[in-house]
Amino acid sequence: MPPNPNPTEVRMPHEPTATDDRPLLILVASSYWVLREYILKSVSARYRLWLLNPTPPTWEDPYIVGHTVVDCLDLDKLTAAAREVAREHEVAGVFCYDEVYIEISAQLTAALGLPVLDPDEVARCRDKAATRKALREAGLPQPASTAVSSLEEARAFADRVGYPVILKPRNLGGSLGVRKVERPEDLADAFAVTDGVRMGGIRQFEDYVIVEEFLDGPEISVECVLRDGECTPLIVARKVLGEGPRMAFEEVGHDVDANDPLLTDPVMVETLQRAHEAAGFTNGYTHIEFKLTPDAMHVIEINARLGGGMIPYLGLLTSGVDASLAAADVVAGRAPTIEFPGPLRAASIRFAYPPYDMEITSATARTDLVRPPVHEVRLGTQPGARVRLPPYGLARCGFVIAVGDTLEETRAAVADPDRFFEFAGTPLDEAP
């Protein structure tokens, strides 16, 4: 992703004034400009933000009051930097939306003596095996699954539950390394892919690969905010998955309807409450994923962070609910802002991908095609970027969003995302 629309431009952060009584949040890492700016725009309207980041700020400057460059994966250094900030400012909470840093952010919260987020709760959600165990013990529908450290263990489990099976890393996100294995003879290659995928800075388990029963049905996710154990669903997103062996588990898009009946469905509301109680998650924000089969709503993952893929932004566009602000409120110890001012609409997002693994030499977005119901077309890469398609990498190179009165209208508008983008590049080797 491009770090900044004007990378050579130097901008000073907002200077706090004597009348600026906004509470201060420490923001751990800022991530990609294209996919995250909407979060800072919302949160900075109510909170002063002090950024702790591995690199100096660029695009973040208009939204922060200060920053510290620090290794955000070193808890001692991160804590020391945060305490320096706390010596000069009263810190209301620690805010983080990045998968890589969410667990250490919870540890930082505890080190600063703040009540939210609880590091044990966050760690339990980050660990798919621990989540599965907690949900199963609570009697919630779950696919059969186990964590394994070897191909032999994976094969024994797959033989027991039957093919197809799913392989996934125990604590990664973004569908990295997720594989569907149809036949026993395909297991070894798939296991090697899943076992070999890493995301820098995320702790490793000896039994790193999850093997689980394949469930057939549509996938959804729900954005939830929790305060004192009470779970409130904000957004339901219906996943659109890719096709072909490499893209089969890639979320190539999402559809959000503010009138989605699942938002108020009694079974869904009860399942959300029970799932968070089972995981022991009482205060914070979650992105929880489900597989809907004919017989049950199966909880697949509980992620202790804002949903990716611009899902909170789609919620803002369709109902006016500001999930980013609600997440910031709860870590600041406040009652979360939960408002749906409307009008209630529908939105679809589709992501752009290069046709093959490549080093990008040119990339353009057809912004001239932006007309209702197409709301926005954004480029998310630049020349020099080395892009590998899943399961070896994160390859989203842009997105197109449509907003309308129905999902039929918005889905049709973004049905061919390739027409909004042009990519050229030098092919890379297939293997990572």
From TrEMBL:
Pfam family, one: LAL_C2
PROSITE patterns the UniProt entry points to: ATP_GRASP
InterPro entries the record matches: ATP-dep_AA_Ligase, ATP-grasp, LAL_C2
Domain ATP-grasp span(s) in chain numbering: 132-332
SUPFAM superfamilies: Glutathione synthetase ATP-binding domain-like
Record keywords, A-Z: ATP-binding, Ligase, Nucleotide-binding
SMART domains cross-referenced by the UniProt entry: GARS_A
Keyword Magnesium annotated: no
TM regions (residue ranges): none
Top-level taxon: Bacteria
GO molecular function, one term: ligase activity
Keyword Cell division: no
UniProt name for this protein: Carboxylase
The organism of origin for this protein: Actinomadura rubrobrunea
Classification of source organism: Bacteria, Bacillati, Actinomycetota, Actinomycetes, Streptosporangiales
